[in-house]
Amino acid sequence: MLKVHHLTFDRACSLVLEHLNATTPPVGEIKIIAIDGPAGAGKTTMADALSLSLDEAPIVHMDELYRGWDDALTPRVASIMRDQILIPITQSKRGSYRCWDWINEREGERVTISPHRYLIVEGVGSAQRVMRPFATTMVWIDIPAPLGLNRVLARDGAKVKDFDSFEKQMHSWQGGEILHFEREETFQSVHLRFSGESFIEN
Fold first, then answer.
1. All domains of the chain, ordered by start, with CATH?
2. Measured between alpha carbons, how far is 56 from 79 in angstroms, rounded to an integer?
3. What is the pLDDT of residues 70-93, one digit of tens each?
Protein backbone atom coordinates (compact mmCIF):
# COMPACT_ATOMS: atom_id res chain seq x y z
CA MET A 1 0.00 0.00 0.00
CA LEU A 2 1.32 3.43 -0.93
CA LYS A 3 1.95 5.54 2.15
CA VAL A 4 1.45 9.25 2.75
CA HIS A 5 4.14 10.46 5.16
CA HIS A 6 3.08 12.74 8.02
CA LEU A 7 6.19 14.83 8.54
CA THR A 8 7.15 18.37 9.36
CA PHE A 9 7.46 20.70 6.40
CA ASP A 10 11.23 21.00 6.79
CA ARG A 11 11.68 17.23 6.94
CA ALA A 12 9.52 16.73 3.85
CA CYS A 13 11.59 19.28 1.92
CA SER A 14 14.78 17.55 3.05
CA LEU A 15 13.53 14.21 1.70
CA VAL A 16 12.69 15.81 -1.63
CA LEU A 17 16.20 17.24 -1.88
CA GLU A 18 17.73 13.90 -0.88
CA HIS A 19 15.81 12.12 -3.65
CA LEU A 20 16.71 14.84 -6.14
CA ASN A 21 20.42 14.69 -5.34
CA ALA A 22 20.51 10.89 -5.49
CA THR A 23 18.68 10.57 -8.80
CA THR A 24 19.92 11.01 -12.36
CA PRO A 25 17.64 12.98 -14.71
CA PRO A 26 15.78 10.63 -17.08
CA VAL A 27 16.66 12.89 -20.01
CA GLY A 28 19.12 15.76 -20.42
CA GLU A 29 21.07 17.38 -17.60
CA ILE A 30 18.42 19.57 -15.95
CA LYS A 31 16.75 18.08 -12.88
CA ILE A 32 13.00 18.73 -12.87
CA ILE A 33 10.81 18.53 -9.77
CA ALA A 34 7.03 18.20 -10.10
CA ILE A 35 4.87 18.96 -7.05
CA ASP A 36 1.26 17.82 -7.47
CA GLY A 37 -1.78 17.25 -5.28
CA PRO A 38 -5.17 18.79 -4.53
CA ALA A 39 -5.81 22.52 -4.33
CA GLY A 40 -4.73 24.08 -1.05
CA ALA A 41 -2.30 21.31 -0.09
CA GLY A 42 0.82 23.48 0.14
CA LYS A 43 2.43 22.88 -3.25
CA THR A 44 3.41 26.50 -3.87
CA THR A 45 4.84 26.82 -0.37
CA MET A 46 7.04 23.78 -0.92
CA ALA A 47 8.08 25.00 -4.36
CA ASP A 48 9.17 28.34 -2.90
CA ALA A 49 11.18 26.64 -0.15
CA LEU A 50 12.87 24.23 -2.55
CA SER A 51 13.71 27.06 -4.92
CA LEU A 52 15.58 28.85 -2.15
CA SER A 53 17.50 25.67 -1.36
CA LEU A 54 18.37 25.20 -5.03
CA ASP A 55 19.96 28.58 -5.73
CA GLU A 56 16.64 30.21 -6.67
CA ALA A 57 15.62 27.59 -9.20
CA PRO A 58 12.86 28.84 -11.52
CA ILE A 59 9.28 27.81 -10.76
CA VAL A 60 6.51 27.19 -13.27
CA HIS A 61 3.04 27.43 -11.72
CA MET A 62 0.44 25.28 -13.43
CA ASP A 63 -2.25 27.94 -13.00
CA GLU A 64 -0.18 30.12 -15.34
CA LEU A 65 -0.50 27.43 -18.01
CA TYR A 66 -4.22 26.79 -17.59
CA ARG A 67 -6.41 28.58 -20.12
CA GLY A 68 -9.17 29.46 -17.67
CA TRP A 69 -11.30 27.15 -15.55
CA ASP A 70 -12.63 25.11 -18.46
CA ASP A 71 -9.30 24.57 -20.23
CA ALA A 72 -7.03 23.61 -17.37
CA LEU A 73 -6.57 19.87 -16.94
CA THR A 74 -6.78 19.28 -20.67
CA PRO A 75 -4.59 17.84 -23.45
CA ARG A 76 -3.93 21.36 -24.73
CA VAL A 77 -2.38 22.46 -21.45
CA ALA A 78 -0.40 19.21 -21.28
CA SER A 79 0.96 19.99 -24.74
CA ILE A 80 1.98 23.50 -23.67
CA MET A 81 3.89 22.03 -20.73
CA ARG A 82 5.60 19.40 -22.87
CA ASP A 83 6.36 21.35 -26.05
CA GLN A 84 7.10 24.81 -24.69
CA ILE A 85 8.75 23.93 -21.38
CA LEU A 86 9.87 20.33 -20.83
CA ILE A 87 11.35 19.53 -24.23
CA PRO A 88 13.33 22.79 -24.60
CA ILE A 89 14.54 22.73 -20.98
CA THR A 90 15.80 19.15 -21.18
CA GLN A 91 17.61 20.07 -24.40
CA SER A 92 19.36 22.88 -22.48
CA LYS A 93 17.38 25.52 -24.36
CA ARG A 94 15.17 28.28 -23.01
CA GLY A 95 11.59 27.34 -22.26
CA SER A 96 8.83 29.93 -22.51
CA TYR A 97 5.06 30.17 -22.32
CA ARG A 98 2.24 32.70 -22.34
CA CYS A 99 1.03 33.27 -18.79
CA TRP A 100 -2.76 33.19 -18.44
CA ASP A 101 -4.34 36.49 -17.35
CA TRP A 102 -7.10 35.36 -14.98
CA ILE A 103 -8.50 38.86 -14.47
CA ASN A 104 -9.06 39.56 -18.17
CA GLU A 105 -9.51 35.89 -19.13
CA ARG A 106 -6.98 35.87 -21.94
CA GLU A 107 -3.35 35.05 -22.67
CA GLY A 108 -0.99 37.49 -21.02
CA GLU A 109 2.72 38.19 -21.22
CA ARG A 110 5.27 35.65 -22.35
CA VAL A 111 7.41 34.20 -19.57
CA THR A 112 10.92 32.98 -20.37
CA ILE A 113 12.50 30.40 -18.09
CA SER A 114 16.04 31.35 -17.15
CA PRO A 115 18.77 28.71 -17.62
CA HIS A 116 19.38 26.78 -14.41
CA ARG A 117 20.42 23.34 -13.19
CA TYR A 118 16.93 22.79 -11.79
CA LEU A 119 13.31 23.50 -12.69
CA ILE A 120 10.33 23.23 -10.36
CA VAL A 121 6.82 22.75 -11.76
CA GLU A 122 4.06 22.99 -9.17
CA GLY A 123 0.30 22.79 -9.23
CA VAL A 124 -2.56 20.48 -10.03
CA GLY A 125 -1.54 18.47 -13.07
CA SER A 126 2.21 18.97 -12.74
CA ALA A 127 2.91 15.23 -12.35
CA GLN A 128 0.53 14.00 -15.04
CA ARG A 129 1.70 11.47 -17.61
CA VAL A 130 3.27 14.01 -19.96
CA MET A 131 5.67 15.06 -17.18
CA ARG A 132 6.94 11.61 -16.24
CA PRO A 133 9.53 11.03 -18.99
CA PHE A 134 11.20 14.30 -17.95
CA ALA A 135 10.93 14.53 -14.15
CA THR A 136 13.71 13.58 -11.76
CA THR A 137 11.57 13.87 -8.63
CA MET A 138 7.77 13.86 -8.43
CA VAL A 139 5.99 14.77 -5.20
CA TRP A 140 2.39 14.42 -4.04
CA ILE A 141 1.06 16.61 -1.23
CA ASP A 142 -2.25 15.40 0.15
CA ILE A 143 -4.96 17.39 1.92
CA PRO A 144 -8.57 16.68 2.98
CA ALA A 145 -10.90 18.42 0.53
CA PRO A 146 -12.66 20.66 3.12
CA LEU A 147 -9.35 21.93 4.52
CA GLY A 148 -7.94 22.46 1.05
CA LEU A 149 -11.02 24.45 0.08
CA ASN A 150 -10.79 26.61 3.20
CA ARG A 151 -7.13 27.35 2.50
CA VAL A 152 -7.82 28.38 -1.10
CA LEU A 153 -10.73 30.61 -0.10
CA ALA A 154 -8.65 32.27 2.62
CA ARG A 155 -5.71 32.75 0.25
CA ASP A 156 -7.49 33.90 -2.90
CA GLY A 157 -10.98 34.96 -1.84
CA ALA A 158 -10.08 38.61 -1.38
CA LYS A 159 -8.58 38.77 -4.89
CA VAL A 160 -11.72 37.79 -6.79
CA LYS A 161 -14.62 39.99 -7.88
CA ASP A 162 -17.37 37.59 -6.77
CA PHE A 163 -16.53 35.44 -3.75
CA ASP A 164 -19.68 33.30 -3.94
CA SER A 165 -19.06 32.43 -7.59
CA PHE A 166 -15.44 31.65 -6.79
CA GLU A 167 -16.46 29.31 -3.98
CA LYS A 168 -18.86 27.46 -6.30
CA GLN A 169 -16.16 27.24 -8.94
CA MET A 170 -13.75 25.77 -6.41
CA HIS A 171 -16.26 23.08 -5.45
CA SER A 172 -16.51 22.17 -9.12
CA TRP A 173 -12.72 22.28 -9.46
CA GLN A 174 -12.24 19.85 -6.60
CA GLY A 175 -14.48 17.35 -8.37
CA GLY A 176 -12.55 17.83 -11.60
CA GLU A 177 -9.15 17.38 -10.01
CA ILE A 178 -10.24 14.08 -8.44
CA LEU A 179 -11.19 12.77 -11.88
CA HIS A 180 -7.91 14.06 -13.30
CA PHE A 181 -5.82 12.35 -10.63
CA GLU A 182 -7.68 9.08 -11.15
CA ARG A 183 -7.29 9.25 -14.93
CA GLU A 184 -3.60 10.11 -14.75
CA GLU A 185 -2.86 7.74 -11.84
CA THR A 186 -0.89 10.56 -10.28
CA PHE A 187 -0.83 9.33 -6.68
CA GLN A 188 0.53 5.93 -7.72
CA SER A 189 3.19 7.40 -10.00
CA VAL A 190 5.03 9.93 -7.84
CA HIS A 191 8.20 9.23 -5.85
CA LEU A 192 7.25 10.87 -2.55
CA ARG A 193 3.90 11.46 -0.80
CA PHE A 194 3.33 13.84 2.10
CA SER A 195 0.42 15.11 4.16
CA GLY A 196 -0.01 18.85 3.74
CA GLU A 197 -2.13 18.81 6.88
CA SER A 198 0.84 17.65 8.95
CA PHE A 199 2.90 20.62 7.74
CA ILE A 200 0.66 22.84 9.87
CA GLU A 201 0.17 20.45 12.77
CA ASN A 202 3.90 20.05 13.33
1. 9-201 (3.40.50.300)
2. 26
3. 999 999 999 999 999 999 999 999
